[in-house]
Structure formats: C-alpha cells, structure tokens
Amino acid sequence: ITHVAAGRISADSTDAVNGSQLYATNQAVESIDNRVGDVEGDVSVLGDRVTNVEGDVSSISNDLGELADQAVKYDTNDDGSVNYESVTLAGGEGTTITNLADGEVSEGSSDVVNGSQLWAVQNQINNSLTTGETKYFKANSEAAAARAEGAESVAMGPESVAAGDNSVAVGNGARAESDGGVALGAGSQATREGMNGAEEAFSNESVASTQGAVSVGSQGGERQITHVAGGTEATDAVNVRQLKSVQAGSVNYDRHSDGSVDYSSVTLGQKGTPTQIHNVAPGIAPTDAANVGQLQ
C-alpha cells in the first residue's frame, strides 16, 4: 500500500502509519540505544570506582580497628559516656610505660614519676637505714638493729628494744618493757608498771596513772640526774638543794661517829643554843616528856 498519509500517533489512535513515521521512530530508538550504551559504559566505570572506594573504605575500617585496639582510651561509665578520670591499661601481667620524662616532685605535684626517680628515693632510704644517719641524727655501731615491738613504740640505738605499748627506748641496749615506760641511756631498763590506783609512799595517796616509769639506768648501773631545777608542783622532781633545806628545818636523830643514825638520841638546835618545845601534851608513860603545867 503506497502513498499512505501519515497517521495520527496518540494513545487512542487507530490510524495507519507510513514508512517515514516508522523510520523516524527507529531512528529515535537507535539514538536511545546509543545513549543507553553510553550510560551503561559510564555505569560500568562508576561501578569500578565504587568497588575501588569500597576497598578503600574497608581498608580504612581495618586500619581504624587496629588503631582502636592499639590506642590507650579513657574508661567509660555505666551509661556509655567517657570517664575522663580513669584509664585502664590492658595486659594480664600489667603494662610497662617507657621513656617517661622526670615528673615534678613537690607537695602539690600530680605528675607521674619514672623509675630513676624512685630509685634515687629508694637508694637514699636504704643508705639512711644502713648507716642509721640523717643530717641531725647519727649512729655508729655494728650491733643488731633496734626493735620497736610494742604498739606505737619507738626504739633508737643498737639493740634497743621498746617492748611495751607506747614505750620509748633510747640508747645502746636500752629496754622499755612496761606500757608507756621510757628507758633513757645505754643499758637502761624501764620495767616498772604504772601506779594504776596504788598508794604512793609517804603521802599514802592513790595515783591513777597507767604510764610506766622513766628509767635512766638499771640495777647496779644507776645514773645521777644533774642540773635538775627545783620542783614547784606536787608531782615535780625535787633537787638536793630542796632536800637540804627540808633537812635543816627538821628534827633529826643524832648520828654515831661512823655516820650511822643513833635512834637513841635527838639533839634540838645548835650546840649552846637551847630550843623550846611548845604545845607539849601532858606525859602519861614513865618515858613521856612532861610539860611545865605538870611540873608546877
């Protein structure tokens, strides 16, 4: 069929179309095919690039994983937030941190110190313990070390022993056995316990103190305590000067020529200076003194 007019081309058209219309359509389809081919080529290239990117991303992801495993990280709180106050290092046997610079050593320092700094401190302590010396304390001995055995006790000096609680032993071989006792000087022995309510001599007053005695010697190794100031309170020590003053104002037995006490004789006052005795009660026994009232 020739000389066919161009039919109407629409969705509901029933017209016959001619060859020129089909040719135009074929040309359009061929152009589309070419474009699709070009797009397919571009998509293929893009696919290769995406594949390469995926490989790079995978490599980066692996690197990040390795970096995370090797990194030192802050710990996390229970809610998953970062705990900037805590870092836990891995390693079942602990982790060594090397190449640390010297940290500041001061009262307010929060720096980490390294091994050489600790070694210097340890060496200083060991030297002090070995020689028993500091700038203001010196000791010279090859004897055994001091022993502070009681709770809160202090022992200073070779072979000194502070065995009692809160006791102090100072000196070569000094020994404080009683609680609260103090042994001062080489060979001193502090073994007497506190009064614990017992009555003291002469005054017959009870003393509640639980502190052990202070000893400056031992039996057969007594020491004088010199330069003692005169006591002023009831519990102060007195010196010889005070005792002599008391003796001078006291009535004393006479003494034999060898210096021993003559309990059969009492002389009042100085020789040639008679002494009156006042407020004498009337005598009763044949050996009692009589007062003037009885003699009148």
UniProtKB/TrEMBL annotation:
**Residues covered by the Trimeric autotransporter adhesin YadA-like head domain:** 148-174
All copies of the Trimeric autotransporter adhesin YadA-like stalk domain together span 1-41, 97-131, 224-256, 276-296
One Gene Ontology cellular component annotation held by this UniProt entry: outer membrane
What's the domain of life for this entry? Answer: Bacteria
Q: What is this protein called?
A: Trimeric autotransporter adhesin YadA-like stalk domain-containing protein
Native organism is: Halomonas huangheensis
**Could you tell me which residues belong to the region Disordered?**
172-193, 274-296
Q: Which SUPFAM superfamilies match?
A: Adhesin YadA, collagen-binding domain
Q: Name one Pfam family in it.
A: YadA_head
Q: Which Gene3D superfamilies does UniProt cross-reference here?
A: 1.20.5.170, 6.10.250.2040, Serralysin-like metalloprotease, C-terminal (2.150.10.10)
